[in-house]
Design brief:
Residues 54-131 form the Group II intron maturase-specific domain. It comes from Lentibacillus kapialis. It holds the Pfam family GIIM. It contains 10 helices and 2 strands, in the order H-E-E-H-H-H-H-H-H-H-H-H. It has helices at 2-12, 50-63, 72-90, 96-117, 121-130, 135-142, 148-151, 155-160, 163-168, 174-184; strands at 35-39, 44-48. The longest helix has 22 residues, at 96-117.
């Protein structure tokens, strides 16, 4: 089948066919332009391919590295560019669970980045106090010897740096972006 179509395209239509990218098979088993087609009990839907999700998460991981230079505003701006572009491209697909999980993971990574940048105990203490944490609790968390990732899971840091706070600091809410993009299609 593929050989006859390739022959037709190359001889009659004078087009070149990339043999590495061309294949024939079931639409539910082949990815096309980063999408996979799958069927549910009621309908047929599309979703991003696993490799597309993996690349997206890897890109966000490089943008939120702890030792990354630049201001927090610059980092958030770059994250917004990547996420808005990705969601606009894949917004037609069904990926509500993935967007919820990646949003939580990204917020966790940003809390870790912020905590790392508040290097000194005094800075951590004063910033936590500014964000509404009580005196004793702020002192305990600021003085902890736990690692950055583990502290970013703490309830105190979640109370201080809420998702609304991250949005106020410039991060776009991925769940809201996805809902808007999905409803537009």
């Amino acid at each position: 089948m593929l050989d006859s179509v390739t022959k037709f395209l190359e001889t009659d239509l004078k087009l070149t066919v990339n043999r590495k990218k061309s294949n024939v098979g079931s639409p539910t088993k082949i990815k096309f332009l980063g999408f996979c087609i799958h069927s549910t009990a009621k309908e047929v839907r599309c979703r991003p391919d696993k490799s597309a999700k993996k690349k997206f998460k890897a890109k966000l991981k490089t943008l939120t590295k702890r030792n990354r230079p630049g201001t927090f505003e610059q980092i958030v701006k770059e994250i917004n560019q990547v996420t808005v572009g990705w969601i606009n491209y894949y917004g037609i697909s069904f990926m509500k669970g993935f967007m919820k999980a990646i949003s939580q993971w990204l917020n966790h990574r940003l809390r870790q980045l912020i905590w790392k940048r508040w290097k000194k105990i005094k800075t951590r203490y004063t910033r936590l106090k500014k964000l509404g944490i009580e005196d004793e609790e702020a002192w305990k968390v600021a003085n902890t010897r736990k690692g950055y990732w583990r502290v970013s899971l703490s309830e105190t840091l979640h109370k201080a740096i809420k998702n609304k706070t991250l949005v106020k600091w410039g991060l776009k809410d991925l769940n809201h972006l996805y809902k808007r993009a999905y409803l537009n299609y």
